[in-house]
## 1
Amino acid sequence: MIDFDRLMSLLSGYIDEDLDRNICDEINELIEEDVCCRYMFNTLEKTIDLCHDIEMLDVPEEVHIELYRIIKIEISKKR
Amino acid sequence: MSLSDGILVKKFLKGDNSSFEEIVKRYEKKIYNIAYRIMNNQEDASDVLQETFIQAFRKLSGFKGKSEFSTWLYRIVVNICLMKKRKGKQMKVVSLDAPLVTQKEDELRRELPEDWSKSPSATLDNKELKENINRAISMLPEDYRTTFILRDMNDVSTEDTAKILNISVPAVKSRLHRARLFLREELSKYFQEHV
């Protein structure tokens, strides 16, 4: 039987679908039945989603221009 | 239809330099953002971006295609970042065994507030939350942060993350899990205090 502490150590694997079927079934039950476990699962999954969806910074224009200038120099050296 | 990375690399190796410019165009933003997240500042990220593509240009003839091109490129950017940090003596050594999350079951159960995952404020439209997420990511110890950036923010597989960081697959999983728990805890604090 999985207890709360063990659940804590397995949650990432559960979210990544990286656990054996039997363990997943046990965790499913636990999340269904125990409000604390459900809270942990929901908030961890939400944390991962939020971090994943955070937008990337644009490369500043001057950095972009300088990068292409340097690449062109590298290309001209190669010729 | 855009050409695969592999085709672009082959074309470049046959002398088509415009293929390399296409590669730069494809990865410039990703590399900049990985560097920014690891270095925690835009100036260093800009330097790392340039160094990464210069190294890639010079070393591409040695690319054997044993791994994905993106994995090869990410390895370059991560190595440059870590070298730069070592030079700047910003390197923090954190043991993987260090208890990043110290709360025990009783404590976690006692703190149980409402489930903030369903809160209307739990959205990236919430500027304050976004700032808190960025701050929390920057607070992660470097080993954990780098793993988290690759796996959860750039969708690099566990196996490729292990190759890039030169660590084992279990170590990637362990670092990732600890990083996620730390971030969850930080966001929970935000929701307890502000919402």
## 2
Amino acid sequence: MGEDLKVIVFALGNEEYGIEVDKVRTIERMLPITRVPKTPAFIKGVINLRGVVVPVIDLRGRFGLPETEPTENSRIIIVAVNELEVGFIVDAANDVIDMNTDAIDSPPEVVGGIKAKYLRGVAKMGDDRLLIMLNLAEVLNRSEIIQIEGLED
Amino acid sequence: MDMNAYLSMFIDESNDHLQSLNENLLQLEGSPEDISIVQVIFRSAHTLKGMSATMGFEDLASLTHEMENVLDLVRNSKLKMDSFIFDTLFKSLDALEMMVQDIVNGGTGKADVSAIVSSLQSIVKGDYAAPAAAAASTPGQAGAVEGAAAAQLDEFQASVLKQSMETGHQVYHIQVSIEENCILKAARAYMVFDLLERNGEIVQSVPSVQDIEQDKFDRSFTIFYISQLQGEELQQQIANVSEVESAEVTALDEESLGLLSQPQVAEIAAASAAPAAAQAKQEAAPQAKRGGGAAQTSGGAVNRTIRVDIERLDTLMNLFSELLIDRVRLEQLASEIKRTELTETVEHMTRVSSDLQNIVLKLRMVPVDSVFNRFPRMVRDVAKSLDKKVDLVITGAETELDRTVIDEIGDPLVHLLRNSIDHGVESIENRIASGKPETGTVHLRAYHSGNHVFIEIEDDGKGIDREKVLGIAIKNGVIPPEKASSMSDEEVFMLLFAPGFSTADKISDLSGRGVGLDVVMTKITSLGGNVSVSSTFGKGTKFSIQLPLTLSIIWAMLVQLGSEKYAIPLSSIVETAVIKREQIRKIHGNRMIEFRGAIIPVLSLSRILDSPDFDEDEEEESEIVVIRKGEKWGAVVVDEFIGQSEIVLKSLGSYLTNTGPISGATILGDGQVALIIDPNALIK
């Protein structure tokens, strides 16, 4: 028997993704973002989260998906992993579900254009609903940012 | 009793006492005849001993006890300080520091100090020590004394009482008897204790307090008591407690105290020795009183402070910065709404909050003394190990700096001081040969100037040899040879801070590994400060460090760049100006302007920051902010000036690093984040 998890579900394009609820600080509507020069394009800038300056990443950009203009449904999910506090811009975030780690299968090589290393697995929910679980530590991996910076220079 | 609750207090106070011991011993080394310093040292050692014993750190207590024995002989003029005694005392201090450090790290504070203890004991037993005093102060002997007579004091308590007498308190021996038919003896005894504790201090009671509380006593008990009250008054007060049959209050003097505490020793010791010792004590007493008075006044000042966890101060600071942001927002709103009442209220709030800001910032200010105070000792040790004679002259130790800066500057200063002693000050023979006094002088100065604090380290040593520095720099590939002749002295001296640079002919134990000065530079720059060097060959060298007063709130110039806003720290702005397009000239492909008689580079902020919606090339006239980094200037072209403002520094978080010209962020009155530009990164 695996562990029971509570998962925040958010949408990116046509896929649904999940992050464990204990990694999520808050979910915010879109806030004014200040651009930070000399950073990779997927880093949209910083926001004022009640007096704390928090960097914001466009998850579409991070995964190499085409970026879109924010809509009414767009949200910023503030996650905290390994003392890093970062906001993710997602297309929508509107569900919290219970699931068991047993339901997570190891991911295929590429899901919806996202490399497997960013994924923890794929969970089958009900009949035809797939939930892609993110590997946050890898998504926030800083060494990769440094590589990207190196390429852009 | 749960000792943990007192442990942090014990550690703090032990460190204070160790520091004061260190300082005073150094002072005493300068003037060994000054008995008043010995008194101060003795008191510190004594307090330390008491605290350690209470906390159960036996090794600490026993080592301080031995030190105290030596010091006791010194202050009673039975022993003259010499360099062996000083070295032993310094070694003891080091051992004590190690033990306290061990306790800090969660250890038991145990250490093998037998070598030091035996050298301390040999000092005590030395030719100058009176046999009686030596006998009285060895612990074995004291142990034998214990429990001999009913109302007896152990050695420690006796010395507490003795000291109290010296500082002008009355010491009483009180015998209280309770009525025979009293049912709650313990309760009555408690009332007496309570009464006494209100006006003084109970040093010892026979039977012990625990026994009395548990009713384990006959009808009477005896107390040794320190107070300022008169004997009759005390007797009156105790007699007023109901069911107390009698109270005998006897004031004690040194002699009777001596008899009570060490009756057997008095018998054993030669009859002539005892009066001699008593006489010596009495001679010391007036001096002790003077010293005691001084200690009490300073003690009064100390009691008016409290220790606060630095994290709480940080929280206070954070909360205050939130308030500051709201204040700016309110000011904006008030100016839009234009209601007199609102404007007045906001103005009042502004005044109050700027007072509050001053206080909050001051709370975080610590005198540089807290860093400087460990240097005299360090300089002494370094100089001794190099066989040099060095005087360290500290001025401006009361200058205050933000706590965060204080925590960081210790190591850079240690580097610079060691550097000055090692490379600056010459060996004794060389000094005499060049007609200087054999003792070198290193000045350590701190002073305020504007929004900065300057710390200078100046030695009267051999100065920096320009040619030697250049030679090494060329050899190590720090600069190309053809550049050497065109460099100013200042530029040459700054080469010392280049990574991997060392001018020492031989690598010494202390400095000269070529690491150090570049580390100093990196550290100071990361604190927003600056280091400069000036030197006259043969006369000496001066390192000057410029540091910001605080790292959390700064004045900045807010500028507009298209739709974006940026803040430039005022500390690096020389001035602002408006220039015309045609004033910009191209020299070797670099855009320069003439400004105040100098040609300075034009830096395009829009290009450096990849501005999405501003390009100064479309403007006829450009606003420029002239910034400086050390001696270098640069003209930063911006879109528009917004104005000066006090801003709260916020970090960009640990996810964003390597942000180049951006050193941090701040939150503006409208809640937007504005980025802070690091002028040092703009000028190459």
## 3
Amino acid sequence: MQLSRTAKFSLGAFAIVAMAGIYLPLLLVITNSFNATTSGAFPIQDWTTKWWVAAWHNEGVREALWTSIKVASIATVIALVLGTMISFALARYEFFGKHTVNLLVVLPIALPGIVTGVAFSNTFKHVFEPLGIGLGMLSVIVGHATFCVVMVFNNVQARLGRVNRGLEEAAMDMGANLFTTFSQVTFPAIRSALIAGGLLAFALSFDEIVVTTFTTAPGTETLPIWIFNNMSRPNQAPVVNVIAAVLIVFSMIPVYLSQKLTGDDRD
Amino acid sequence: MTGTRSQTLEPPEQSLQAQAAISLRGIEKSFGAFTAVRNLDLDIASGEFFSLLGPSGSGKTTVLRMIAGFERPTDGSIELGGEMVTDKAPFERKVNTVFQDYALFPHLNVAQNVEYGLKLRKVPRAQRQQMVNDALEMIRLPQVARRLPSQLSGGQRQRVALARALILKPQVLLLDEPLGALDKQLREQMQIELKQIQREVGITFVFVTHDQEEALSLSDRVAVFNDGRIDQVGSPADLYERPATRFVASFLGHTNLIEGDLARQLLGAPGPFSLRPEHVRVAPSARAANDQQASLTATVREVVYTGSCTRFVASTPSGADIIFQELNGASTQPPQRGAEVVLEFDRRHAVAI
């Protein structure tokens, strides 16, 4: 489609304004992490790296980071296993209620986090706590897994729709059993979809705060919760900026990788 | 001594039965509410070039996929070389398939594709290499061994798919419209090659096609599929000259269906009869009908030139259409459009269906 010069210019300008609206505040967080004053006054008078050093040595941050990594990793593994199994069931077999199952699997990503949070909080408090399993790391992981599954499911299901089933049949025709066929033909074909889905699931879990707030217990503090709790404390605010800056960089990596992976073998 | 010998030379009826490469008994296959194959019995002899012919959706590919093991029949049983395989997986059956889209592994080169089944069977490396070389020699493509499937032409891919299946020396080779994706010239060349290879290796070929010409020219026997059933099984000549049903008559080549009053007038029975266009000719001169010949007057409505022959469509006074055909280059002047002609044919060529 040909655009007139004016249209091109105004669309370009609009895109720049929109991008600036998204990314300037992020840039501000990063520069503020080098701001010597604790008030975050702007423009910056004194530059410093002391907050970065402070963040590095902060016990609370380290513990919260470790908790976040554990939660995100386990939730991602659960999502990979369950998501892959569900996508195979839905892509390869016909059964009663198939479309309902599809909807029920995808729903958690659309459900407000607060609803998921309240639901899990109540379930754990009233059903599992009397059985000895109260709120804590486990409930956070289960809560996160509900939407992490969707990430893996969506990626793998889309890929399975494009995988040539004839290749699997050809392998079996030449004597490959079910396991060999899966490991030599099916798995290589869906591998990048699994990695992409897993990375997105990890990223989603890593910065989740709403469900976590409702399902966590004192002693289990993920990084976003730690940030939220420390933002309002004047002497911790600069450290929060540092953590946020680090998170910006780290969250870009999985998204970049997953885009690259799903784009790569599209043909 | 002599007695035993003559017994081995002339096997009793029972062992002839056991020689069937494939036996299908009472096969039914439904997909939900749709029935693809209904109550089908079929025996295919060892070493035969057997075609499953029919329009798309007639159930022929479904039958092939059930023999390969990709689909499980809803009812009935499948025997391969005397062994019951109805519930066995594809990798437990001694059949191999040439797929319609070839299904070559895109990330493996030609030699690796051909080698795949041998590797699974743990054939030693040196022997494997020798067999792959021989197979590529057989399809006359030794020079493409290191190329990826995407770098091959359609005809080359087809031949690689054939080599990949044949190298495993199956009891039966299943071919699912293997020439469907090729253009006409290449297809005809591949038909000849396929027939040659089948004769050389002596393996039973089961060939699915919707192309009646292809089925007639390649096969020892053909099963004609119509709406999930087999209408007729027979040699190409059987099917063409003695079609059992209206469907077989009209699906294989052109035919005239003669029925009702016209049939009574010409053949003394209401029919229907099938009469091939090449058996109808313009009577050389006004000649009275006799015991062998039937004749009728008609007006030529269409003249279709097809190269080796010309096809004419003529209408009888009662409105029935008769197609007839003449070889080109015959000395007589061919009839023109609008001409009134007297047509005649041998009564024995009209086959009751």
## 4
Amino acid sequence: MKEFNYHSAKDSKEASKLASSGSAFLAGGMTTIPSMKLGLATYKDLIDIKNIKKLSGIKVSGKSVTIGAATKHVEVANSKDVKKAIPSLSSLAEGIGDPQVRNRGTIGGSIANNDPSADYPSACIALNATIHTNQRKIEASKFFKGMFETALKKGELIEAVEFQIPEKSSYQKHPNPASRYAVVGVYIAKYKSDVNVAVTGAKSCVYNDKEMAKALSGNFSSSSIDGMDLDSSDMNSDIHASAEYRASLVVTQAKKAVDAC
Amino acid sequence: MASLVGSRVERKEDKRFLTGKGRYTADINLANQTYAIFVRSPHARASIKKLNIDKALKSSGVVSVLTGKEVADDKIGGLIAGWAIRSEDGTEMKCPGNPPLAKDNVNFVGDPVAIVIAESLAEAKEAAEKVEVDYKVLKAVTSTAEAMNGDTIHEGIDKNLCFDWLLGDRQKVKEAFDKADKVISIDIINNRLIPNAMEPRACVADYNAASEEITLYTTSQNPHLSRLIMSAFGNVAPEHKLRVVAPDVGGGFGSKINVYNEDIVCSWAAKKINRAIKWVAERSESFLTDIHGRDHVTHAELAVTKDGKFLGFKNETIANLGAYARVFGTVTPTYLFGPCATGVYDIPAAYTNVKAVYTNTAPVDAYRGAGRPEATYTIERLVEKASMELGIDKTELRIKNFPTAFPFKQTLVHTVDSGDYVAGMEKAKQMADYKGFETRRRESEAKGKLRGIGVTSYFEACGIAPSAAVMSLGCGVGLWESAEVRFNPTGQVTVYTGSHSHGQSHQTTFAQIAADELGVPIENIDIVHGDTDKGTFGMGTYGSRSLAVGGIAIVNACKKIVEKGKRVTAKMLEANPEDVEFKDGEFIVSKSNKKKTIGEVAFACYLPGVRDEMKSPLPEGDEPGLKETSFYDPSNFSFPAGTHIAEVEIDPETGHVKLEKYTACDDFGRIINPMVVEGQVHGGLAQGIGQALYENAEYDETGQLMTGSYMDYTMPRADNFPEFNIGYTCTHATTNPLGVKGCGEAGAIAAPPTVMNAVIDALGGQEVTMPATAEKVWKACKNLKKSNSKAA
């Protein structure tokens, strides 16, 4: 690991002020630190945001659940409020990585990194989330731009993620047995007027599968998507799963999610 | 006094390990030490056109940069294969030179070309990036099956073939096959694995210019053997000027048998710079440069009668050695593999042919089980297939071909002294509720799942020794083991053993044995190992040999102590030595019932004189002191055996395999500590099941390791396993005084075929290669659906 300057910001303003083209915000460091150790990333400055109190914590209102960006996975997994309002969200958090990752990793870090196989981006898409930053509010559908790419600008810091409480929802993941990332994860949320089918792991970026969403909006039953033959041409293919297998898993996990709703 | 052998004595080492007081190589820091980083080849095969260290030498904090040139100039020797194998045509095996730093050619990704030594680790890393190597990249050979058709890797080694070895009689096999009603054949791949010891390799080398001694702290399973190899072949220093210490070592599984490049280079360089050097592997270096295991491509056939009697067996295997032949690299696919090829069965004609090939991949060497898992996988997959094709119950077919009388002389090499394979099978069936499987299968079916059951009956030749046998097979050294038992004047005992514990609990089990033999409380017994300056030369730990060979050396040394104690007691109590009996730590003169404790005898041996008298308690001819040594060279291998049964449930929609039940019924002979044995069985099973369902080392066609981290290499975790159902049968080995056989490798040997037989049973006999990943199984499920719908 190359030498770098460590800063601990006391508030968002200071964090933002410290940011430069050679800096990165540090929350749980679950991706940043290993990338630096492997020499895949180098930064001049790391700006630790964990000590910014405002960024941690969970608030539940009648319609939404708002989670501070520096809130750890374990806190979401164990929150009685989240469990009550959106049980699928706490079970998603409970299934991220391993205990070490859950005790350090944060929701803000996860979505800012936008790993194509991460779990949280699918929750954002499925649960009509709004990403609150120190500059603006961004709808989840406009936040995830591509592989490891988001709408965040330089120095822009996620402060919280606000999820809309659905009628029912479920997240089903087929984990990579090695990394436990999603080979394919499908998050289904049913709202009064529509259904979201967020898929992670299958393509270069999380997406809402409109075809399945439409079928399920008509009839919210796994039979309405059973046997659906998805186009696998732009799906990921690697040593863990071919595109063809991923396409099949998307349907299988979606069916499981509907059945679990 | 109650016997400690056989009881669940709590581990003496646990306090140290569980409170963070273990002392591993990386924990050792010496005054004024430097830090080393190795510059490694990023290419699988290349020639080195130019190597420039000027910039690195100028980098901050750099002490020295050494390359293959200096290694050659100083005539430092290379890494070696410990066993010479002869091909079927009588020619000797062909081994390339393997200098500890490559000078002209690199042959796998990770092959080291230079060592950079600096005042700090960070400075060493930074300077290592400044070493400029101009490579001419050559086409890599990576496929085991195609290696013989690839470009020649090592000059003068045609077809990349190290040897083409035969064990058995082709003519007899042909005759047997001619008589067969049916021939069952199978093509299988034994997947390449990476051992992944919890503690990565490390070494700290120190040089004392005054005494001219090098001390090397290293992660080794066999420090004495390391010293011998580094001295005799590496030319690092004469043995008396080289001390090798293997302190606490966090797992080996065979990967720490070898002397590695870093051991030789750091020892040599420490003398050169006259300072201590510390090197600790990063996990990614372990993935690339620790020896790998398995990697066979096999075609095998079994000739049977229609009622299921086995007549003949043949095994044609290509074994991947990787880039170079290392210490156990050549013996693993030959003498550890071939003699076990016929499994537990009585098969009158058999041969095994192995072509060992070089590829541009990490060296392949002994990994837990070493050869025996590959042999067992082949025969047990074949027998399972035979049971399907013959329509004979898989357990009945096995029983039908078990030997029933012991000692049993196998067709190929081994004479198995003891065993009761039928009893093991019957007990395993009962433990696994084999009869109830059909009900469970139907229950799974009702949930839309596929359920399968798999059986393996295995045996293994372990307790690796005996010298006469292994030397006749081509081993460079005999494989006895040594022990020294030393009494202090005040009665405590230190046992020096040539075995090495890197997780095997010797500190406890060996102390149990000595406590029983000597009648000394276990807390007064210390086990010392892992230091060439302490105790006599020893061979180390591998091949499930510590107890069956090293443990017996301890027993024999203890017996010598008792014999001397009897003579001393007789002198002290004015009796005949023949009238002295030893029991529970006391020497008793049978006629007078007078006695001396072993502590009193020890004291007398060290202080041989009585005040104001000219009388010694030592009989004439006996020297003072109480210390005895034994070198034990057994008459035969030991042969653990058993039957394992696994049940899996498959979700045909995702291909996910859930291991529902796992039953292991093993015969390890006498068990010293059941708790420790359970730990060994669990560990072996985890690695064996890992091979079957999860682990796979995969290279791409350019020789880059695709599974070089835990993100891609699937190490199994606790939630991948059911509660293991473990039981034993017990027939004592007749070839050693404790009746023990060895337990370290059984799980890794038996589990792969057991699990795969269950998976393939669930898939209606469709072959799937290891590891049976969800995608492979999903594809097989789709085929099954197709063929079922056709049938309907």
